Amino acid sequence: MEGGATRAHTRPVFLQLRSSGVKFHSRRVEACRHEHGTVEGEAASRRALLSLSCGLIASSCFSGKVLADEALVVGPPDTEPDSRPEISPTKDFSADGLFSFSYPKRWLVAYDRTNRDFNGSLVLAGDFVNVDTFTVSRRVETDFVDDNGSLLSPSAIADKIISEARDTPSAMSYELFSEGERKREDGYPYYVVEYAVEVCRGQVEELIGGNKICSGPNDLVLQTVKRRHILGVTRKGDKVFIVSGAALQSRWGSVGNDVLAAFDSFALD
Questions:
Q1: Comparing C-alpha atoms, which of 172, 252, 231, 182 is closest to residue 207?
Q2: Strand arrangement of the beta sheet that strand 108-112 belongs to
Q3: DSSP string for residues in 42-63
């Protein structure tokens, strides 16, 4: 360099979150470089970047735990129901003598067990890349009895099914949106529940004040998975039919109408 002066190597500074693919560019860093010159500006830019990084980390960490890469999710808030997009084009599914429903054309049917005398999950359809799902199950009514051997009502059956997810050690939270009996076009009364369950893929730890965190190996705080569900239960003869649709809560604003439309289209023959 001329005059023996040295020049600090400068480059744009980015803070990148690897798992989410979100990149932050610090304009404060560049401003520091212009204001203070090269060497001083580089030092100032590092301070600016450190300040920005600490601000992000401090807002996400607590109790001495460090977030895993996947723990920070950046995206728009859930869309309100009134602003959801229109229902996608659909195609029909029909199991002769049993039931029918419509589902989005972009969905696939994973399996169809309606052509045999089978009690369990009969049909599974959905978008399996994003895990938007719709299922129909048939059970014998004697599968659902109380301690005295009496048959459970559809509302009690619905609560029993939900409790299998709500009351497990991996459940972080449960949110009830609506429940009640609905008369459908097929003439059968359905007990319908709309709810969401947040699940931890690691170990749930309860902190002071009742707050919970999802803890993984080496005390990493893991991301949780929250899914929104609509569940319907009805009887036909000695059979219980269970209809269920679900999607990630974070996707409900864009696909909730499709899930609800598939659910509402279901009809027993």
A1: 172
A2: 108-112, 120-127, 132-140, 239-248, 224-236, 189-200, 171-183
A3: HHHHHHHHHHHHHHHHHTT--T
CA distances to 44, 151, 259, 261, 267 from 104, in Å: 54, 36, 9, 9, 17
Residue 101: closest CA among 240, 195, 241, 250: 241
* Cβ-contact 123, 113 below 8 angstroms: yes
pLDDT attached to residue 22? 37
Among the listed residues 78, 130, 70, 21, the one whose alpha carbon sits nearest the alpha carbon of residue 250: 78
Task: State the residue for tokens 């129909």.
Answer: 136
**DSSP at 117:** -
pLDDT digits (tens, 9 = 90+) for 231-249: 999 999 999 999 999 999 9
Phi, psi dihedrals of residue 146, rounded to the nearest 5°: -85, -175
Alpha-carbon distance 59 to 200, whole Å?
Answer: 21
Closest to 27 (Cα-Cα) out of 9, 39, 14 = 14
Alpha carbons 17 and 70: distance in angstroms, whole number:
9
User: Cα separation of 129 and 126, whole Å?
Assistant: 9
CA distance 51 to 62: 18
How far are the Cα atoms of 96, 218, 266 from residue 93, in angstroms, in the given order?
A: 10, 48, 9
- Region for 118 from its dihedrals, namely left if φ exceeds 0, alpha if ψ lies in -120 to 50, beta otherwise: beta
Answering whether pTM is above 0.85, one says no
